[in-house]
């Protein structure tokens, strides 16, 4: 009988050691995850997000203002292309606004949707007048004024967040 008792004691020891490598692997994985989170890998830093957002906003509004300033009152052949680029930059600012709302909720809204709706309407009116050969002076003045207002709002947002 002595023989069987040693055998069962040996099996009990073997069973307890069987889980030790699995437990060690789990401990190492958890420790690595905690270490990486403390270093900031895989996490979203709010200040880094705001810095990147402000950089993109600044770039988009500068391009929009620059392209708007190149528009001609006479309606050259490239005016339609320039209008497309202005729309593109305005849309870029709108996308950044939507991303900010996605990150922070409605509190994170930088611009009201009416701002973009108004700008798109002005661009559409300008393009329609350009296509039909009508005078575009009023549309150009409205577009310049709206882009300038958007630029003022953007600079206020960037300055308010310390960027």
Tell me what you see in this structure.
This protein is mostly helical and 163 residues long. The chain folds into 2 domains: 38 residues; 115 residues, Up-down Bundle (Four Helix Bundle (Hemerythrin (Met), subunit A)). The protein is built from 6 helices and no strands. Helix 4 runs antiparallel to helix 5. The longest helix has 26 residues. The protein starts with a helix and ends with a helix. The model has no long low-confidence stretch (mean pLDDT 83).
Give the amount of beta strand, in percent.
under 5%
Overall geometric form: elongated
Number of helical runs?
6
Helical content class? over 70%
Distance between the termini: 81 Å
CATH fold call of the largest domain: Four Helix Bundle (Hemerythrin (Met), subunit A)
Backbone CA Rg = 30 Å
Largest sheet: number of strands, sense, barrel closure: none
Question: From the 3D coordinates, which CATH architecture of the largest domain would you assign?
Answer: Up-down Bundle
What is the domain total for the residues?
A: 2
Low-pLDDT runs of 5+ residues are none
**Helix/sheet category:** mainly alpha
